[in-house]
Amino acid sequence: MPRLISSLDVDLGERSYPIYIGQGLLSDAELFRRHIASRQVMVVSNETVAPLYMDTLLETLNGLQVEQTVLPDGEKYKTLDVLNRIFDRLLEKRFDRGCTLIALGGGVIGDMTGFAAACYQRGVNFIQVPTTLLSQVDSSVGGKTGVNHPLGKNMIGAFYQPQAVVIDIASLDTLPARELSAGLAEVIKHGIIKDEAYFVWLEENMQALRTLDADALAHAIEGSCVIKSRVVSADERESGQRALLNFGHTFGHAIETGMGYGNWLHGEAVGAGMCMAARMSRLLGWLSAEEEARISALIDAAGLPVRPPDLTPERFMELMAVDKKVMAGQLRLVLLKGIGNALISSDFSPDVLRRSLQSYAA
Amino acid sequence: MPRLISSLDVDLGERSYPIYIGQGLLSDAELFRRHIASRQVMVVSNETVAPLYMDTLLETLNGLQVEQTVLPDGEKYKTLDVLNRIFDRLLEKRFDRGCTLIALGGGVIGDMTGFAAACYQRGVNFIQVPTTLLSQVDSSVGGKTGVNHPLGKNMIGAFYQPQAVVIDIASLDTLPARELSAGLAEVIKHGIIKDEAYFVWLEENMQALRTLDADALAHAIEGSCVIKSRVVSADERESGQRALLNFGHTFGHAIETGMGYGNWLHGEAVGAGMCMAARMSRLLGWLSAEEEARISALIDAAGLPVRPPDLTPERFMELMAVDKKVMAGQLRLVLLKGIGNALISSDFSPDVLRRSLQSYAA
């Protein structure tokens, strides 16, 4: 029996939509039907997720004209060419403007399916069914969709909101532990930047999360989505506030690039990156040593690295200088003035950054 | 010296934008600068238009970082693959989110450049410089952008509004007469569906338009844009009212498909299609014989065909049945209850449609 544990609304005026969180929701026919406008439904998934959950979802949608597109698994397939396979399929099956696309998978499937929905006949309905913790807490809110280009990640896309997001916690049962930890990096990030009480709750419940306690997971996911949707509602098209969500990411991107994409999971790089941002905030005198230690301990408890890999400070500075948040030559970082209180700042000397990086080399 | 003859605002709330109409506006540096946010500008054009007007525009934009992408000319290049060349170029030149794309050309260039602007980094600035009469009166208003797919026209795209539309009437000097007439089909259509006074003005000034009188052209283009923007403002995402703009198009599409795309220009097919819709409206008793004759005479005066090619009524009915405006098996047509008063209707017997088609066979 499907069990709805909690739900929330992402408030974006006429583009508002609900996020449902529960156990077994993949089988909740009534829930899906509520957000499907016509008989035509295309489920987009990948070769890893489809064998696990496609049959369940197809049974739930029984009675509708349901077609499927199964893409190869992996970030390297997040391209315009592979996207076109979704359009091929929609047109072969003569799908009209009233159709609904369902993304069944992680972030790549969500990004591509959302972008396909944004573009097909200039916009059709779209339901997200994220099956990884990372996509549940990250891509559920924000409306970012798109594909990569050989010269840059996520360079081609659209802001496009789904009709609904359906998060079935049971789908985490098949998620590798390393990917669960990577998802927890974003969960922890939301607490660090905006909500100390949520951070404290995570300190107390990290074990329950890692052992997949359903109610703990639902609470963590809901909290993350609430925090992210507060930030996004205030800044849908990403000019100011929304940059706070990049906490740990400038350091993290430097790690990913420096180590070669794919060797560190994004969440792992963000885990170490958040520790580095906390260290730098402490060296600026903005964060206490105790707070830095709590941040590091929670990231460690999530099974994530708490220090960067072996890259020289010089190499790090070089990698960070190409980050897209560098405006007019000035590096802007998301830093902390306490847990739950992040800010965007370029108000620091390069020397403090260098000392932060050197502290790990020692 | 550039001479601004008239301008209007397309009212779409925070996505509103101005349309400037004048003589020599391609050289109006101040006008362009007003709508360009940063130094990075990409002009997209095609192999026919670029040799005629690219240099003038580049000189106007002198002082900015201006790059160009010149695409092959023609509807068959309106594909996802060719679109990707624009992205390649933007990324090679390291264009950021603050950049501006300028479409210099007809409808195909406008549709593709607008769609590229909609998708590049999830949306950048976009200025339209339509150089054909058809694109000046049709694509300037409505925000439709996109590309074709082998299985359908305009199947992949976005609704995306430009920062400004700059219409330089001087660019019509190099337009083949046949294409000028094709553009006049849409001009006439706007009068027929919504504005009898405008229709009367066209009856009186058709000769001036065909001999490229600048003030007459500016007046006609402005009038067309005003009518279209009234219709579009009321219905930005195309549910009801906006379908009135398809007047003559269901018949016209049948002609285009029946004759093979490209043999009749779209505007020519619409010209004959409007005559057919007027004929049918008369047979329904909704339009007087005199009004039908005036419509036909004006379309003839514009240098357009006033009767369909040699297709049997059966073939026509077959071609019209696949039109996308067929909902749940019922054919809906835009018909007339007088000049300036169009409506969408399925309130007719197939027999009236058959008799309209047969009247041309006789």
Write the layout of secondary structure elements.
The structure is a homodimer of 362-residue chains.
Chain A: E1 3-10, E2 17-23, H1 29-33, E3 40-46, H2 50-60, E4 65-71, H3 80-92, E5 100-105, H4 107-119, E6 125-130, H5 133-137, E7 144-149, E8 152-159, E9 164-168, H6 177-194, H7 196-210, H8 214-233, H9 249-259, H10 266-283, H11 289-301, H12 313-321, E10 333-336, E11 342-345, H13 350-361
Parallel strand pairs in A: 2-9, 3-4, 3-5, 5-6, 6-9
Antiparallel strand pairs in A: 1-2, 7-8, 10-11
Helix pairs in contact in A: 3-4, 6-7, 6-8, 6-10, 7-8, 9-10, 9-12, 10-11, 10-13, 12-13
Largest interface: A-B, 25 and 25 residues
In what range is the share of β-strand residues of chain A? Answer: 15-25%
Rg of chain A over CA atoms, rounded to whole Å, is 20 Å
CATH superfamily of the largest domain in chain A, called what?
Dehydroquinate synthase-like - alpha domain
Record field, number of beta strands of chain A: 11
Q: Tell me about the largest β-sheet of chain A.
A: 7 strands, mixed
* Class derived from helix and strand content of chain A: alpha/beta
Distance between the termini of chain A: 55 Å
Quick one: overall form of chain A?
A: globular
Topology order of chain A in helix (H) and strand (E) letters: EEHEHEHEHEHEEEHHHHHHHEEH
Name given to the CATH architecture of the largest domain in chain A: Up-down Bundle
Secondary structure: helix percent of chain A: 40-55%
Oligomer: homodimer
Taken together, the total number of domains of chain A comes to: 2
SS field, number of helical segments of chain A: 13
CATH class designation of the largest domain in chain A: Mainly Alpha
Overall pLDDT of chain A: 93
Q: What is the CATH topology descriptor of the largest domain in chain A?
A: Dehydroquinate synthase-like, alpha domain
Strand numbers in spatial order across the main sheet of chain A: 1-2-9-6-5-3-4
Question: Spans of chain A of 5+ residues with little confidence (pLDDT < 50)?
Answer: none
